[in-house]
Amino acid sequence: MTQWKQIQQLEMRLLEHVDYLYDDNFPMDIRQSLAGWIESQDWDSAVNDESMASVLFTNLLSQLENVRMQEQNFLQRHNMKIIHQQLQRKYTSNTTAMARVISTCLREERRILSSVSTQEQGALEQSLQNSVAFKRQKSMDNRVGIIRGSVQLVDQAVKYIEDMQDDFDFCYKTLQSREASDRSSERMKQEVTRLQEMLNRLDFKRKEVLSKMDVVIKEVDDLVTSQLSPELQDWKRRQQIAGIGGPMLTGLEQLQSWFTVTAQSLFQMKRQLDKLGELVVKVTYESDPIPLQKPHLEERVKYLIYHLIKSSFVVEKQPCMPTHPQKPLIIKTGVQFTTKVRLLVKLPEVDYQLKVKTTFDKDLPPGRVSRQFFILTNNTKVMDIEDYSNGCLSVEFRHLQLKEKKYINGTKGNEGLLSVTEELHSLSFEACFTVQGLTVDLETCSLPLVVISNVSQLPGGWASVMWYNLLTDEPRNLAFFGNPPRASWTQLSEVLSWQFSTFAGQGLNKDQLSMLGEKLLGQLASCSDCQVSWSKFAKENIPGKPFSFWMWLDSILELIKKHLLPVWNENYIMGFVSKEMERVLLKDREPGTFLLRFSESHLGGITFTWVEHSENGEVKFNSVEPYTKNRLSALPFADIIRDYKVISDGVVPENPLKFLYPDIPKDEAFGRLYNSQPSKVHPYIPSTLIPISEMRSNSSSTPRSCQSPEPPMTPGEFDMLSEHLCIDIDTMAQWQDLLKLDSALQSRVQQLYEGRFPREIRHFACSWIESQDWLSAAESETAARTCFQALLDYLEELWNRSVQENNILEGPDFRRMMDYLMEHFQGQPVNLALIMSDCLNEEKKILSSVTTAQNNLGMPLKWREVNNKVTGLKWQISELKKEIKTLDGLNEKLDFFQQTWQSKVEQNIQVAESKVQMVEGECLKRANIITRTKQIVVQRLVNLLNQTAQTVATLTDVELPEWKYRQQLSCIGGPMDTSLGLLQKWFTAIAEVLFGVREQLQNLQDQNNKYSSSEPSKLSASVAELNKFVLSLITKLLTNSLVVEKQPIMLNLPHRPLILKTMVRFKVTVRFLANLPVFNGLLKVKPVFDKDVEEAKTVSGFRLFDFTSDNSKVLDVDTPDGGLMAQFEHMSIKEKKARKKGLSESHLGVTEELHVIRFVTTLTHAGQTFNIEASSLPVVVISSSNQVPSAWASIMWWNMLCTSASMDLSLFAAPPPVAWQQLSQILSWQFLSVGQRNLDEHQLSELRDKFVDDPEGLVTWSKFTKDESTWIWVDGILDLINKYLSDLWQDGSIMGFVGRERTKFLLQTKATGTFLIRFSESIRDGAVTFSWVDHSSGEAHVHAVQPYTKKELSVLSLPDAINHYTLTAQGYSSYNPLMYLYPDIPKDTAFGRYYKVPGPSATNQNCREYLHRRLTVVSNHPTPPPSPPMEAPRMDVDTNVDQSNDPNQRMDEFFQDLLDLPESDIFWPSFQLSPPSLQDILESSAPTCQNGMDH
Length: 1495
Hints:
alpha+beta; 6-stranded mixed beta sheet; 15% strand
């Protein structure tokens, strides 16, 4: 029964609550029509995955359209069409919002169903539901409506008064205009009387309106005080409860409606009062009521507006990390978090005017906290109207990030009073609201936050968040945990049940809560008023256990969420049941009856206990060692129950689990949850992974006197506890610098780690590794062990994050990294510290040598020349500035001298003739010096401009195109180019020089105008000419300054840029190289799709696309290097319905059609306007993910043959061939990009035979990707390496591309059991196989196993497949034929560090009460290693077996081999347990195998 059908069967009281969930954001019509489909999708994951949300949104619209087309009712079809259009408008640009709405609705439905299953609601939930009763809402609606109507009546009354006053004013002025002689007439007296009556009526109406206003204001005041403010506080309290798992928060839209209508009414009254004030100016009289009452009424209205708007500023979504959406109010340093504030008063004139600023721990008293933080990213944003949320005015901060302040003196503050997770912080929001002459300072704050530095602190942080929000409604009691209050068990149990309904979909029943109460409080739990202290709940360890109650319960929640969700939701896990109770439940049941419960001594463990009856009637209980998340990540729990085997003293194994308590057959209960089915018999050697336990005679049963079947501590438990010790520091500069080095230096780094330490650990834990003091750890055993354990914890954290992000299969294998560390360094952690200390020191030496080389000869000669020229130009302009300043001083002195002399002459001071001549001569001398200096300065300016012009040409015509070509190569896997910073430095410097020259030319002109009034024209003409030249250089420099720094790339295809999928988000970064401070904020860049593309106009069938929203952005300085850039992070495109009808018909495939994104902007500066444009490299637009390989082929081909300067978008109309030498380099780069290892000569030679059939070594486009799809095969292998084989490819374990004959040649002379790993040539999607040699018959026989595809490798890694690969003959014996990796490397030496599935091991001493369990790989086949027939559809096989016709001889040889095998570990096949007859064996091996090998 679907969830929706269960909902429809609820009673009316609960259905009303369901009705409250659905509105225009997600209409119930969709929920009804698409119930099954909606419930089958993973909306929770889509909330944090934009690509997944986009796909689900597209599929939802498609499903809705299908339902609409099948609907017979016309009205219903029309409604669905309207809903379809509404969804498109609301969510096309924000699909994650839709996913969040649907996820919330489904989660709340599950909560309602869960409350029914527990047969009663908690007191807290009941109180919350009562607080949003419909009667109170209706009362509010009525009162708000009445107030609105009253205001409208007052408005009409004011207009009526205005009309009356106009009439009075007209009559009064008419009367005044009469002649003086007419004023004493009888008619005049009548008119005066009538005018007095009009004034009396006007006075009455004014008093009446003011009285009505007073009544309405009192009504509004009472509404705000008695109902609106309490409703807001009630909503905030419900927000607290919803944040810790309580009922879904609703009612904000209703609150916004009430606030908005009330505010609109108050603003309308303010305008009415203003209007009355205007009327008074025109007509007033003695005892006029308006001047007397208006100020008081106006003051009251402004007061109500002020407080209403101030209280309407709320935090709609409390701060939350996207990685943990169900645990808000916990923030991890260095991790982005989101929050959203809303103004409940919706006024259109406020749009884009409210700038909201966030502040962390604002006005926090000193000494309150031991740690202080600041917001690392941009903390100011402008409020906007959201179309998809009923037009509310809000702002969402999506990329906030915290960083802890560093303390130079080593003192953090008041340390030691509270733990990290008890220390509360707050995030404040401030804005200034100005509208209609009113200014209101808005401020609100989040609920108290817990700031953690490591994900292992998350459970403790969540405990603090729950405790605070359960017990107080104070918004900012940051000292709460200084003396935390107690909680009643009634309150706490309800919140704990919420955690299970939120995270696991189903709450806890009475029995489960009762068991939890006894575990926490003992027998006191039976009292509903029993009080629980904070320390008892989250800080004190459970008696006899090394962890607290909450840590234990939280680990169970994580286990259910990640590994047990289907089983839990089927109610198959009894879960919380004591050991004593489980024995009571099982003792009278059928043998093989079992139940599932959570371990009480392990963190996050589940076990099953079953009952057995011996022949003498004795009842035995057996419990398996608990399965933790580490084990369950390898095999689903339902499959474990199905395949579980017990071996007792070598007897054929059996599964003891028969019936799930009370009496449900195992397969009936779990059958539909089995992930994998037992392998069927086929010509190949099948393998099955199963869990087994061993029972030996001396420990075949569990003693009845056993008090506890669970050990006090196990390694699995220790692994879980170790999560609380790790450190996380967000710096990794050294490793990032190493990644930018060329291939030669990369090789040095690789050699540094070869055979000592995995580079993948160095890469993915680089930030943590670089933050440790390995040198000190190498000198101290204790410090080394601490570092070792912390590294394990850090990798565990990364693993948890990848699980939460659903990136287990495609992401790094952190579990294998941890296993490697445990195997190699657990016993000697000092060795790890020595290796890391040495490697980090050598890394620094490599970087130091690179830095020195770059500063000297390492920089290319031409770059050094350009750099020297730019430096010289900067020096020249600085010198010219000094000279022009000196020239200004000379002019000023001469002018002063002349003015003084002229003043003396005018005063008729007698001056000797000789003195006059001397003064005039001195002035002429100084003027000549100034003239010569001007000429020198102008000449130097000319020289400087000529040199600058050469440099501008070098930058724009040489260096920039070369950088763009290097960027092209890096996009298709080539070396990463890091010279853009250097280009920016040069462009910026030259821009400074040119604007400096322009400034100095203006100074010269000003001096000339000021001091040379006689003949300024000559110099002015020169300056004008130079200015014109400077402007042309500036124009050339600036129009080339905008570049696409990071080409368009989808987040889910980080290694394959320039491929775009419709309706899927992609990002691109543009940078302005002329990075002058005055340009910051002046450049608004707009992307345009296919701007000026000729094919879009002329080619018929050419697809047309457009962006889904306006993506314009302002360039801003937002990078550590100060780059002036804009990151377009949320771009997406959609296809236009009509394709272009052009002059010519397109014969290109979808992936051969090239498009381009132009980025256009206009810069206005210093009176000049510059039109600037930049283009992306050609992009390929796909509509389906299966087009990615072909699209990438097009991208590679274009970037091999073209440049961005030519921008030939019609290349594939007649694609030219490529030389193999060029193509081989590109192919090698693909493998380097995916697996950190190039192709060698032999591998390239094998590939050449597949690609090249031209005598000149040319590869045609058709040969590459169309006719034989050779590239698709290579791409499948690349994908295989990327997902499952990257480590093996990187360390050279995979030979890869090797043909049939070469495989035989390489193996035939090697020892028996030597094998090599190669890629299948017959499976297009990528598969890997291994071939081995066998000399047991005296001749060399080479065999190959059926290839492992991605599907098989997703279940079992290749190293584990090799390690556990086993051949057996009908249960008699078995062995692993794989012994040495070619040429002679022992198998375990080559792959040991990669094993994840453990082999046989001794039972842990701490687990002797349990049946120890392990995983093994089993294969069944009736003959020795076979050679499958070539007709099989999917295989890689080498066969060179003896074709003897005597089956008895073949069987004798085989059994003789078995007798020579050493005794192996206990092995049992997964099926076929009875020994077959010899005749059966002969018949099953009768078909003759053919020679051959997969190509």
